[in-house]
């Protein structure tokens, strides 16, 4: 898992996986054993746990997030791996292609890169006068570069300037956001990445302190005070992953199971945060939102 053991979302995702496995005929009291390790998107921890889990002799490995799956893939090219919450499985070297993975790994992508432009479109809908957007991304990860490119492509026709902010450490983020906030008509896009995860609390604090409207990919950020989020239903990915685990346990091979994109997305809006920022959320967004926090 790519969260801490005490993380409520991580627990909910594991529970969703277990419930779906039970529906498919697998019971932890009869014919199934599940061993869980909590990697927290830490590369060293993930490498350690990958070796530890492999030593248990599993029939299938389930990995959440790119760091965990990369560690599992390096540990074995034989034991089947089902992954979730991986953004670019081809670019990360996990599969040969989406249609024909070709190795011992397959699973479910986090999202398609075209989603990156949607975040800016949402922010522009909420703040029509938006002229500048800071994109918090991981510059050392090729995925972060592609995400920023998709946002730039959307920004030009909308008349918005996109400015990258790297997420190497807390000090860099704080200085860059404070500097960006000195200008007018600005907003934030927090691109999802393993490197940004430890700084979510800081990013929420900075957005509130500098009164910057911000869009996120994960709806728990909105529950914690973020303005708006749009992204895949991550719990649904774990339910779908159970289907692949079931098929592999029954004899199918990961090489023959195509990598799948999300089929369910969630839109969440925090009206309380909008009021604090002096923003009126369009009724069309409130009507279509999966969750509205008052």
Describe the structure.
This protein has 294 residues and is an alpha/beta fold. It folds into two domains: 8-111 and 234-263, 3-Layer(aba) Sandwich (Rossmann fold); 115-231 and 266-293, 3-Layer(aba) Sandwich (Rossmann fold), CATH 3.40.50.2300. It has helices at 8-23, 43-54, 66-75, 115-126, 142-158, 170-181, 200-209, 220-223, 234-249, 271-277, 283-288; strands at 61-64, 81-86, 105-109, 132-137, 161-166, 186-190, 214-216, 228-232, 265-270, 291-293. The strands form two sheets. The chain has a seven-stranded mixed β-sheet, sandwiched between helices. Strand 1 (61-64), helix 3 and strand 2 form a beta-alpha-beta unit. The radius of gyration is 20 Å and the shape is elongated. The model has no long low-confidence stretch (mean pLDDT 93).
Helix-strand pattern: HHEHEEHEHEHEHEHEHEHHE
Question: Taking strands numbered 1, 2, ... along the chain, how are they ordered across the largest sheet?
Answer: 5-4-6-7-8-9-10
CATH superfamily of the largest domain: Response regulator
CATH architecture tag of the largest domain: 3-Layer(aba) Sandwich
Per CATH, the class of the largest domain reads Alpha Beta
Distance between the termini: 31 Å
Strand content bin: 15-25%
Largest sheet: 7 strands, mixed
Share of helical residues: 40-55%
Q: What order do the helices and strands come in, and which of them pair?
A:
Layout: H1 8-23, H2 43-54, E1 61-64, H3 66-75, E2 81-86, E3 105-109, H4 115-126, E4 132-137, H5 142-158, E5 161-166, H6 170-181, E6 186-190, H7 200-209, E7 214-216, H8 220-223, E8 228-232, H9 234-249, E9 265-270, H10 271-277, H11 283-288, E10 291-293
Parallel strand pairs: 1-2, 2-3, 4-5, 4-6, 6-7, 7-8, 9-10
Antiparallel strand pairs: 8-9
Helix pairs in contact: 1-9, 2-3, 4-5, 6-7
